[in-house]
Design brief:
This protein is mainly beta and 189 residues long. The protein contains 4 helices and 9 strands. It binds a DNA duplex (12 and 12 nucleotides) through β3, β4 and α3.
Length: 189
DNA sequence: GGAGTGATGACA
DNA sequence: GTCATCACTCCA
């Protein structure tokens, strides 16, 4: 998933973000995973086969975007935690320019960086209506592959964020993956 | 460093 | 029904 493009269609416009940061939530035993307590109404899509969105609200404000992975009945998903905007500039929504991205004229990495899962969903305008939907263009939210970057990215692994409640074994696993090399990531896709 | 926010799931 | 707890962000 790292380096791939997540695309959101809103009317005729497309928002595109290259994924640069994610976390793995894997299986029944992973105490950081919502699925560690078994199947519930919220997490049931985690038990589907790969390719479905798992969207939920945290802290009353932020939607987390996850994509399911693996076999049916095995709960696993990848949380998208950050990316860089690679939309054509004419497609950028105006609200974004007023907040943390400082306008279309300045285009260096940090200003196009969406660091944090809440920013990602805010920019892509993704909410719970995408929960349990397949990642497909007809659903308005999907992934594309940009092969030009494949061999160039460098990846570092760290513990997952905000999961201390999972105890030392699971909170320390290096299941957060980040693209550390910034070169080329902002190229308009 | 701390407020904000509301769904979720555990327990009664 | 009540309660604590959160896969966080922003402003200070």
């Amino acid at each position: 998933m790292l380096g791939k493009i997540i695309v959101r269609r809103i009317g005729k416009k497309r928002l595109a973000v290259r994924i640069t940061e994610l976390e793995i939530y894997d299986g029944f035993k992973d105490l950081a995973s919502h699925a560690s307590k078994g199947q519930t109404p919220r997490n049931k899509i985690m038990f589907a086969e790969g390719g479905y969105f798992y969207i939920y609200l945290v802290y009353g404000m932020y939607y987390m975007i996850n994509i399911t992975t693996g076999e049916k009945n095995y709960p696993s998903a990848i949380l998208l935690r950050g990316g860089t905007i690679v939309s054509k500039l004419k497609n950028l929504p105006t609200y974004k320019l007023e907040t943390n991205l400082n306008g279309p004229a300045r285009r260096n990495f940090s200003e196009k960086n969406l660091g944090g899962p809440g920013k990602l969903s805010k920019f892509l305008q993704v909410n719970k209506k995408f929960n349990e939907k397949l990642a497909r263009p007809k659903n308005g939210l999907w992934f594309e592959t940009d092969d030009s970057l494949k061999s160039k990215i460098k990846i570092s692994k760290t513990p997952r964020i905000g999961v201390n409640y999972a105890g030392p074994i699971w909170s320390k696993k290096k299941w957060r993956y980040v693209i550390t090399q910034k070169h080329n990531l902002t190229k308009i896709y």
